[in-house]
Amino acid sequence: MHAFLPLFLATLWLHVRTHAQLHPATPATYRRLPSLREQAAIVDAWRDERLARIPALLQKYNIPAWLISQREYAEDTLWWSLKDATEHAPHRRTVLLFHTNTSSSGPLAGQPNPLRWVDNTGAVWPALRAVLAAYNPRRIALNTDRDIAFGGGLHVGEYEAIAEALGSGWMERTVNEPMLGIEYVAARVPGQLRYYRALQEITWALVEEAFSERVVAPDVTTTEDVEWWYREKMLPLNVTTWNHPRVSVIKPESFPGWEGTKDIIRESDLLHVDFGITAMGMNTDVQHMAYVLRTSKGETDAPAGLKEGLKKANRMQDIVLENMEAGKTGNEVLRESLDQMNAEGIEGQIYCHPIGDWGHAAGAVIGFTNLPEYVPVLGELRILPNTYYSIELYAYSFVPERNETLRFRVEENAFWDEHDGRWKFVYGRQERLHLINATHPTGPPTLVVQP
């Protein structure tokens, strides 16, 4: 027995290190974000930090130049991560040329990086040819990938315009390297985490209020009422969303379809929400569950079977975080996690994704709802450090009080803590069901409508 003690202690320590991340002890509050003017300055500073990394990124992939071209309303996917905070679209035709000539010598020494042209006369093309002739890059990256959005944002018309303007000599040097866009978009800068945590708390505060008697009146409020409450409530908070909130009553049939999303909320319903907010160039994405107490029967807590289902989903989150390591592919993490679930007798599905500049951001995915065991292309990408992930999954669990098996669907956002060398949830994770108690009304449901 003593021979196994070190292994047992090591396993226990890993469990404690990974899982000592509890449901927050106090209710979330609506954090006040900086003014929009202040936000613009902060976001631009983050953007400048990220742009400064591009020459090293180009050197990593042995590509001396990266050409990005777009027009108003025909933007490259990367535009939204490259632009100034006050720019809402490219002007006319906007052409960017990133390069690796960062020393004090060379043909582009002292030039901006990127070089930028804004033009609708065609004058950009001879200017670009002159720069290329002086710089003479052996390889020029174009965003033409057919599978990855963050490496394939060059519109067909722009590609044809570039090919005609540059000619076959330069076009023969063009290459497709989607990892440039993936790594640029995925990487975070240190100052973001403080504000991202504030966004997470705002997200939790919205969920906690929505899943309470302040908003829900059983037999009166519908799931759609709650969805639109979210949309209206966000506006005075100075945040928006990247996906319409989806509120549903969890039933055996309610995933992945729409069953339960147009229901009147009643006592004993198990509710679910999937939504996130957008502010300061960042996005959140959470899924929480709530139980509507049967106050007419004197119920004061959720049935034990529902609590057990949430525990299983939490354990699945633990398993994913244990297996997520930079350098592994998404499919490797998926396979290892599924094997561990099977060994522990847990049934469920994993479908995690990067998050940050976009709700579904750049990088390796870990499962899809329709591809539960292997994901081509995106699943074969490798997990990157210094990024954010959305840990999204569900656990099957039999609920004896209902005599039915339900999917317990959860989602929380995590970041890589370089100091501790592990993934952590940004704000916390749901380990207790939100309880809606109709015996504690605060007045009529506050279904906010803007005047």
Note the run of SSEs as H and E: HHHEHEEHEHEHHHEEEEEHHEEEEEE
Compute the average pLDDT.
Answer: 91
What is the 3D shape?
elongated
Which oligomeric state applies? single chain
- The chain-level structural class is alpha+beta
Number of helices: 11
How far apart the termini lie comes to 71 Å
Query: Strand order of the main beta sheet, please?
Result: 3-2-1-4-5
Beta-strand content estimate? 15-25%
Model regions low in confidence, pLDDT < 50 over at least 5 residues: 1-20
Number of strands: 16
Q: What is the C-alpha radius of gyration, as a whole number of Å?
A: 25 Å
Share of helical residues? 25-40%
**What composes the largest sheet?**
5 strands, mixed
Quick synopsis:
With 451 residues, this protein is of the alpha+beta class. 32% of the residues lie in helices and 18% in strands. It has helices at residues 5-19, 36-51, 54-60, 79-82, 124-135, 156-171, 178-186, 192-210, 223-234, 304-323, 330-343, and strands at 65-71, 93-99, 115-119, 140-141, 174-175, 246-249, 270-275, 278-279, 282-283, 286-292, 348-350, 353-355, 388-399, 404-417, 422-425, 434-436.
